[in-house]
């Protein structure tokens, strides 16, 4: 309470109020420390079915759908329109018969009446994903629900009419919610377990341009550079936890996709450079002999090689020529979960290499506009370091190349492709591990993607500078955020994390959590366990429970109390030194934890430089000749107490200072009360 408020009450009333406040604090009920993690119906069913395992590894009955794409797409720069045909093979490796197919039509996000999460704002209202034909196993699909309808109440009634008509067509293949980002195809004949089905779709849509807010909200600069993402009809994820993924594409939250093979043919004007996921299959048809010759030298050194220079523009210089005025670029990619590409009339194309431990050299390509060369001068070097560092940290880079693509999106990732310049090169390259190989559900649990990434970026940045990473202080800093009513727990669906705290929960909080975990088990142990987890889930789809279970086992202790506090709540430790009392050779240090998150007690005890020998003490290690670190396990709090006294018995040497949580790893709202004597925290002189 404020001093001005107390003065207004008068001395007697103020004293009474302060006494009452102190009494309430002293009589606070014991903490209810939860020591398990909630098991939802989805994960419970998976454990019972044996698709997930309590060890955190894939269960004996683990399965995942596979989807293979064969796509032809053509770009008309004048209208900014893509026109495509896709043949998608769905391999039903699940034990379930599938009466419907989930379909992602993400260009519908740009319809005027599509739901959006703040503050993401589409650059342009378009006509969305326009479907012209669809069939399943050669049989036609009724796509009338994709028909463009009016806005407002008229549009809503038209959609209701379409849905009612579709519901009555019980024996027909029917597209449902065709103007949504999350559509469904109801099948006249279900896809049996173990069988496969072929979905064919013809479509078109306009690539939006303009000043959008947020990644992916704009995909072109005028009519000379295009950066298509979420550009084709995608099969939704079907898994053992929830069946078909039913989340809408709202803007901020990213994706959850099946792994498979992509064969993509991209038709653009000749003279335009094209880059994308996978390997170029027909360089002899689309590149000049000079460009092919330069490409052949890329893997020989770490130098930057220019494949197409800033003055090499147009057909015959940037690319091969064609009598039709157009070229078709063919790409192939294995074991990927998406496909992105970019094309521009005047791209500069440069390349270097990264040397992957145990694998060898892979090319790192950069395509960018000449006027933005300064943004790419160091981008190749940064991406090279990232590929090599993360290959040593987790597992070798799994793909045959990496490409940095210039464009309106300067911070987004896809398999083998990052839409980035030097600014986000390390961060986006790191996504080649999460989620491009370890395929977590970004839509629900963005912290397993962006958060893991932010943590590994700290390690990579420090390595690039030749310094040890600084993880101290991160965990403590969460105490200043805990209690914000706008913050959702990390296990809350990220799609609904809110406009003010989505970024914090998805990106920022995970490194704080892992900072505290490192303060308990050691940073090297955290990274070792995380590496083992990553290798166990290569090209699979782990859930948060898989990660929690795996880390418990890998770290050799039950940390469910820790996972519950960090992932399922917004609690903090909020600890303090309640008192320090000397009595003979014993110094009694009473530690209070005022928050609902428990934590071990870690004390650094500093002794006078001279005096009797310092005797060894249980739970203590000497950091140097005058400082001991005392650790009390977290389980002293499990009986609900809020204060615990640590008796320091080191012999007759005088204790000059005690510091609680010296590495600043545990969330604390007010760190100033963690040092005794108090003058040690403020710099004032004091006599102990």
Features:
single chain; 688 residues; alpha+beta; eight-stranded mixed sheet; six-stranded mixed sheet; 32 strands; globular
Characterise the protein shown here:
Helix content is 23%, strand content 27%. The strands form seven sheets. Strands 5-4-8-2-1-14-18-16 form an eight-stranded mixed sheet. Strands 17-20-21-22-24-23 form a six-stranded mixed sheet. It is α+β, with helices and mostly antiparallel strands. The longest helix has 20 residues, at 502-521. Helix 9 crosses helix 11 (502-521), helix 11 (502-521) packs across helix 12 (523-536) and helix 12 crosses helix 13. The two termini are 29 Å apart. Residues 1-9, 13-25 and 682-688 have low confidence and may be disordered. It is built from 15 helices and 32 strands. A hairpin with a 4-residue loop joins strand 1 and strand 2. The protein is globular and about 95 Å long.
How many helix segments? Answer: 15
Q: How many β strands by DSSP? A: 32
Radius of gyration, whole Å: 29 Å
Please estimate the helix content.
Answer: 10-25%
- Binned strand content: 25-35%
Structural class: alpha+beta
- Kindly report the oligomeric state of this protein: single chain
């Amino acid at each position: 309470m404020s001093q001005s408020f107390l003065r207004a009450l008068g001395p007697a009333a103020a004293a009474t109020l302060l006494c009452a406040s102190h009494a309430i604090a002293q009589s606070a009920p014991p903490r209810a420390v939860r020591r398990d993690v909630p098991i939802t119906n989805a994960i419970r069913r998976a454990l019972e079915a044996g698709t997930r395992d309590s060890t955190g590894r894939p269960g004996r009955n683990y399965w995942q759908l596979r989807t293979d794409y064969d796509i032809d797409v053509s770009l008309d720069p004048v209208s900014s329109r893509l026109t495509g045909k896709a043949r998608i093979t769905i391999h039903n490796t699940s034990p379930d018969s599938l009466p419907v197919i989930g379909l992602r039509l993400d260009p519908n996000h740009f319809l005027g009446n599509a739901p959006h999460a703040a503050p993401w704002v589409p650059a342009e209202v378009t006509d969305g994903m326009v479907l012209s034909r669809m069939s399943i196993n050669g049989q036609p699909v009724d796509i009338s629900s994709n028909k463009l309808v009016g806005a407002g109440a008229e549009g809503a009634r038209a959609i209701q009419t379409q849905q009612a008509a579709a519901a009555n067509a019980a024996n027909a293949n029917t597209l449902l919610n065709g103007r949504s980002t999350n559509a469904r195809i109801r099948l006249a004949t279900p896809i049996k377990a173990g069988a496969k089905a072929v979905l064919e779709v013809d479509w078109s849509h306009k690539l939006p341009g303009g000043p959008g807010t947020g990644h992916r909200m704009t995909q072109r600069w005028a009519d000379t550079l295009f950066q298509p993402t979420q550009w084709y009809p995608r099969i939704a994820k079907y898994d053992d936890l929830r069946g078909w993924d039913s989340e809408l594409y709202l803007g901020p939250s990213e994706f959850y996709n099946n792994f498979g093979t992509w064969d993509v043919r991209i038709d653009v004007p000749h003279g335009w450079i094209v880059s994308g996921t996978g390997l170029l299959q027909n360089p002899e048809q689309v590149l000049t002999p000079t460009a092919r010759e330069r490409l052949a030298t890329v893997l020989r050194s770490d130098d930057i090689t220019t494949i197409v220079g800033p003055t090499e523009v147009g057909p015959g210089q940037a690319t091969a020529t064609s009598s039709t005025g157009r070229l078709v670029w063919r790409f192939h990619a294995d074991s990927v979960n998406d496909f992105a590409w970019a094309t521009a009339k005047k791209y500069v194309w440069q390349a270097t290499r990264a040397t992957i431990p145990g694998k060898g050299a892979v090319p790192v390509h950069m395509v960018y506009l000449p006027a933005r060369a300064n943004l790419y001068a160091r981008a190749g070097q940064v991406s090279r370091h990232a590929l090599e560092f993360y290959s040593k940290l987790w597992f070798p880079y799994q793909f045959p190349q990496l490409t940095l693509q210039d464009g309106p999106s300067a911070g987004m990732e896809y398999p083998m492709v990052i839409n980035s310049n030097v600014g986000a090169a390390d961060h986006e390259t790191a996504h080649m591990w999460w989620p491009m190989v370890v395929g977590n559900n970004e839509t629900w649990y963005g912290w397993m993607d962006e958060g893991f990434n932010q943590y590994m970026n700290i390690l990579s940045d420090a390595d690039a500078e030749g310094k040890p990473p600084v993880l101290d202080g991160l965990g403590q800093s969460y105490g200043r955020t805990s209690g914000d009513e706008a913050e959702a727990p990390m296990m809350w669906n990220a799609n609904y994390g809110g406009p003010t705290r989505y970024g914090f929960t998805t990106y920022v909080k995970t490194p704080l959590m892992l900072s505290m975990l490192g303060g308990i088990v050691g940073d090297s142990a955290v990274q070792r366990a995380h590496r083992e987890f990553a290798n166990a889930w290569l090209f699979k789809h782990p859930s948060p429970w898989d990660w929690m279970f795996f880390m418990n086992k890998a770290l050799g202790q039950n940390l469910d109390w820790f996972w519950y506090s960090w992932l399922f709540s917004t609690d903090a430790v909020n600890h303090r030194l309640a008192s320090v009392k000397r009595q003979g050779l014993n110094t009694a240090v009473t530690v209070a934890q005022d928050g609902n998150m428990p934590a071990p007690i870690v004390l650094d005890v500093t002794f006078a430089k001279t005096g009797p020998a310092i005797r060894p003490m249980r739970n203590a290690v000497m950091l140097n000749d005058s400082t001991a670190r005392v650790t009390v396990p977290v389980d002293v709090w499990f009986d609900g107490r809020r204060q615990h006294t640590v008796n320091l018995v080191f012999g007759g040497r005088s204790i000059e200072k005690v510091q609680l949580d010296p590495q600043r790893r545990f969330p604390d709202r007010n760190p100033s009360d963690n040092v005794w004597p108090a003058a040690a925290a403020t710099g004032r002189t004091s006599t102990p």
